Amino acid sequence: MEAVIQLEHIDKIYQTGEFAIHAVRDVSLPIQRGEFVAVMGASGSGKSTLMNIIGCLDRATRGRYLLDGVDVSKLNRNQLAEIRNQKIGFVFQGFNLLARTSALENVELPMLYTPKMLRGSQQRERARRALENVGLADRAGHHPNQLSGGQQQRVAIARALSNDPALLLADEPTGNLDTQTSIEIMGVFQKLNQQGMTVVMVTHELDIARYTKRMIVMRDGRIVSDEAVNNRLAAEEELNRLREEQRAVQLT
Predict the structure, then answer these.
(1) What percent of the chain clears pLDDT 90, i.e. is strictly above it?
(2) What is the model's pTM?
(3) SS3 74
C-alpha cells in the first residue's frame, strides 16, 4: 500500500529561555492510504504537536516528512499553505462556520483559495456533492444558527472535503457533541473511510477511538503503542442499540 504520511525520526523542540522542551521525540510513522487512525494521549503527550506537524501547521525541528509523496520538510511558507489547501482537509472541535452564510457557501469557501480557478457553478456543484456525502443535501440553504451541533459538524466535514484532499485530519471532532450525535459523526467518518478517504483523528476518548481501525498512543512525545483496534465499533449498529435502549426507557 502507498503511504500518505511518512514520518522519519521527527523531533519537535521548543526553546523557552534556557530550557528546551521536547514535545515530540524521534517519531517514525507510516500511515497508508485508506487507513482510519486515532492518535491518543494525555495532555502534554505530544499528540497535538504531532497533528500540527502532520497538518503542515508547524515544522519539525529535525526529521523528514513526506505527505502524499511530497517532502514537506523542505517547503517554504507559501508552498506549505498550498499543500494545506490542496492535500489536507481539517475538522476541528469548534465548527468554525461563518454565521451569516449558508451551509453551501461555507463549504465553497476553501475553493476560493485554490489555484485551480473553478467557475461559480462548478464550486456550487462540488459543494452540493460534499453536503450530500455527509447527509445534508436538504440543508444547503440553512445558516449555522438553523442547524444542530451535529449538522454544523457535518457542514465542517463537507467543507474539509471540498478540495478533494488526500488526507482528512480531525482534532477532537466530537468534543462538543452529545453521545448520540458523536456516534452519528463517527458514522460519517466511517463512511468516508469506506469510500477510500484516509482519516487521522486526535481524541482523548477511548470509546470514540474504537470507531477507528488503528490506535496510536503517545506519552512524553513518543509513540508507546500502535495497534489495530480490536472489537471495533460500527456506528450504525451502535445507533440502533442506543435507540432501542431509549425506546425501552420510554416504555417503562
Answers:
(1) 82
(2) 0.92
(3) helix
Strand ordering across the sheet containing 198-202: 88-91, 167-171, 198-202, 36-40, 214-219, 222-228
Residue of 11, 79, 71 whose CA lies nearest to 221: 11
| DSSP label at residue 146 | G
CB of 54 closer than 8 Å to CB of 89: no
Q: Please give the radius of gyration of the chain, using alpha carbons only, rounded to the nearest integer.
A: 19
What is the chain's mean pLDDT, rounded?
A: 93
**For 187-204, how does the pLDDT look when each residue is reduced to its tens digit (9 = 90+)?**
999 999 999 999 999 999
Q: Given 3.30.565.10, 1.10.540.10, 3.40.50.300, 3.40.50.280, which CATH number is that of 3-251?
A: 3.40.50.300
SS3 27: strand
The conformation of residue 73, written as its DSSP 8-state character, comes to: G
